[in-house]
Fold this protein.
Amino acid sequence: LVRDATMRTIGLGQSLFGVPNLALLALAVVAAGLVLQSYTRFGRYSYMIGGGEDVVRLTGISVDRYKIMAFALSGGLAALAGVAETARIGVGSAEIGPGQMFAAITAVVIGGTSLAGGRGGVLESAIGVMILTVLANGMIYIGVTPYLQQAVQGGIVLVAVVATTWHLRDRMRVVK
């Protein structure tokens, strides 16, 4: 159980104009991600690597270096999310995270990120998170069981995978 007053304030306290601290933290992370994605070499190269790693390697860019940087950034953000979740619920547990991975993938897919790579971004993913949050809260409000909520999320991912596959297949026909 977290007894530290600072952690509890971060997790449950109100900050600017009644906006929760964790919402402000999320906005700061999205803003930093947008800057990183749009205005840095790391952001541009990461996007290119997602679209076609072999082609980027042929241009002389150190793909492994940028992939390591991306994984390090991902790990740092996962640690920040763990601290934020611990502050929010007041308990640190390793069993919380794995259950949220499917929701995270669903939110990113709703935001338009292609599971095949080369499409998506920070803002689109943030919008996907907001849409999924509204959808999940709506299902809770009308009394949908948690198992059915996961089925709906699975259906969304399935539709996105099928749509992406059809889109890529159509693009390949145009290329041929």
